[in-house]
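URGENT: need a sanity check before tomorrow's submission.

F., can you look over the STAS domain-containing protein record below? I want to be sure the sequence and structure line up before it goes out.
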Amino acid sequence: MSLNVQHDTEQDCLTLQLGNHFDFSVHRYFHEACLGARKPSRSYVIDLGEVESMDSSALGMLLLLREHAGGDRAEIRIVNANSALRGTLRVAGFDKLFTLH
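Structure tokens as predicted:
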């Protein structure tokens, strides 16, 4: 499991860099980093630059984060996704719920 979390306190932006696999194995760590006792950050960056694969639990985690961060008012950017991951996110309609870069 690989998950690197950085919090820019000045901008109140939480950045999560995921390892090779974005799947249920990171659920507990993702939950603690994003949804735990902390109040929602102003913005989030989910960096998929190293991710080779993700499963449906990853999509669920992103939806939980969106809800926690304020739903339609949430500022969540998904960055550095390879073309296959971007395709999966688009097919699932996540390009309408999140900002994809």
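My own read: The chain has a mean pLDDT of 93. DSSP finds three helices and seven strands in the chain. If you see anything odd, call me.
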